[in-house]
Design a protein that fits this description.
single chain; N-(1-d-carboxylethyl)-l-norvaline Dehydrogenase, domain 2; oxidoreductase; UDP-Glc/GDP-Man_DH_C; Rossmann fold; six-stranded parallel sheet; alpha/beta; 459 residues; binds nicotinamide-adenine-dinucleotide; UDP-glucose 6-dehydrogenase; 3 domains; EC 1.1.1.22; globular; UDPglc_DH_bac
Length: 459
């Protein structure tokens, strides 16, 4: 029987909340802390506040039993052996990660340490953050042998966060102390031993994968770099295929065929070779900027990342040009928009390229009827409905009487629309798809003018 650890998770957002219920699912006892009282009482009452598959079930299963929610970090620190910091590390004006939330939490933990604690960086942080956390805790009067700081970066993706957490490709534990590494190994033992996957009601993996993940022990600094390097590399892959898709458009080649041909090379692999309107979300943009900034500060030339960012920015402008090319002029055009979240199956709109495009279209004088299965409420807080912006209840309502329909987010349900009904709803049967969700020939067969990314227009 694996040991049950008393775990505190500080920050109950996309990462912290998912980590908390998943640790409970793995058998541990968890205190989930947030300084947002409204959030804590909603979670205590069973409201997840975010859209994430399996989260409501797990919250229901463990809420107020194996997972308790509170605002009191001092109490959580006293009760728990391992304290995971999962607060935000947003981009600052200079491009660096803003670590003020992490620092505030580290200092607060320090003031309540009365026995040995393992303090875990779960948030994405730049290299050397573990040393700053250690210094902050020591400055608050805690003896060096009373705590260790380890890095355990999180690789979950929104939309499949719970499955990703419980079925990770790898678990990275960066620790410079054997004692702390052993605590982390114990926490993850239900996964690394494979025991969790024998449970009858185990949460299934994102692609039906059920293999026990490897746990990689590294130095703390290596682990910090692994997370930034992984996200930066994925962003490189996206910008690379976007640049290739632009070349395909210039030559009438088909980026889908090119991606298949590239991906069959085992060194390249087929995943993350889908062109679109550019990456967004709360991680890639800020993590690429932070990694570039770390390299700059250390005198290392990583200008590759500036190019990645440049291509990413251009991709949205290219999409806007596609709309312009399809409709001639934009002022006064009525557009249906499908998707507002930064990717499908999540309500997260942080750095969403879809919303940036809606803003660009409104600035061009278009009027927009937008639909998103989960992100409309959040978007309306940022972009309130008005004479030129309406939020509607279905994809067909967005298409109703529109001059064209734009697909901006890859929600699975947007790939399964009734094309006949869509055609009837649209004023002109023009679909401009920034996510390549449809087969161009099928669209033409349904009478649509269909424009996508990096693929020739079918006739
Ligand atoms: P989030 O904004 O959803 O959640 C952060 C939470 O921390 C909020 O609920 C906030 O109220 C709370 N918080 C802030 N200061 C606090 C304090 N002093 N005490 C207690 N709570 C406090 O952020 P997120 O998306 O969960 O990301 C958290 C970290 O994980 C970031 O570093 C991010 O880069 C990283 N990460 C995110 C993802 C993702 O897909 N969202 C994936 C991997 C890693």
């Amino acid at each position: 029987m694996p040991k049950q650890t008393q775990i505190a998770v500080v920050g109950s957002g996309y990462v912290g909340l998912v980590a908390a219920v998943c640790f409970a699912e793995m058998g541990h006892n968890v205190i989930c802390v947030d300084n947002d009282e409204r959030k804590v009482s909603a979670l205590q009452g069973g409201d997840t506040l975010i859209h994430e598959i399996y989260l409501p079930e797990l919250l229901q299963r463990y809420r107020n039993t194996k997972v308790r929610f509170m605002t009191d970090l001092a109490e959580a620190t006293r009760e728990c052996e391992a304290i995971f910091i999962a607060v935000g590390t947003p981009q600052s004006e200079t491009g660096d990660a803003d670590l003020s939330y992490v620092e505030a939490v580290a200092c607060e933990i320090a003031r309540s340490i009365t026995s040995y604690k393992v303090i875990v960086e779960k948030s994405t942080v730049p290299v050397y953050t573990n040393e700053w956390i250690r210094r902050a805790i020591e400055r608050n009067g805690v003896a060096r042998d009373m705590f260790d700081v380890v890095s355990n970066p999180e690789f979950l993706r929104e939309g499949t966060a719970v499955s990703d957490f419980l079925h990770p490709d790898r678990i990275v534990v960066g620790a410079d102390s054997d004692r702390a590494a052993a605590v982390l190994r114990e926490i993850y033992a239900p996964l690394t031993s494979g025991e969790y996957y024998t449970k009858e009601d185990a949460i299934p993996g994102p692609c039906g994968v059920n293999a026990a993940p490897p746990l990689l022990n590294t130095s703390t600094k290596s682990a910090e770099i692994i997370k930034h390097a992984s996200n930066a590399f994925l962003a490189v892959k996206i910008s690379f295929i976007n640049a290739v898709s632009n070349l395909c458009e210039a030559t009438d080649a088909n980026v889908e065929q090119v991606a298949i041909g590239m991906g069959l090379d085992a060194r390249i692999g087929p995943r993350f070779l889908r062109p679109g309107i550019g990456y967004g979300g709360s991680c890639f943009p800020k993590d690429v900027a932070a990694f570039r900034s770390v390299a700059d500060q250390l005198g290392v030339d990583f200008s590759l990342l500036s190019e990645v960012e440049k291509i990413n920015g251009q991709q949205k402008k290219r999409f806007l040009n596609k709309v312009r090319t399809a409709l001639w002029t934009l002022r006064g055009k009525k557009l249906g928009v499908l998707g507002l979240s930064f990717k499908g199956e999540t309500d997260d709109i942080r750095e969403s390229p879809a919303i940036e495009l809606v803003e660009m279209l409104l600035a061009e004088g278009c009027s927009v009827k937008a639909f998103d299965p989960a992100a409309m409420e959040r978007t309306a807080e940022r972009l309130p409905a008005g004479p030129n912006l309406e939020y509607v209840e279905s994809s067909y309502a967005a298409a109703d009487d529109a001059d064209a329909l734009l697909i901006l987010t890859d929600w699975a349900e947007f790939a399964k629309l009734d094309l006949k009904r869509l055609n009837t709803a649209l004023r002109y049967p023009i679909v401009i798809d920034g996510r390549n969700l449809y087969d161009p020939h099928a669209m033409v067969e349904h009478g649509m003018t269909y424009i996508s990314v990096g693929r020739p227009t079918a006739n």
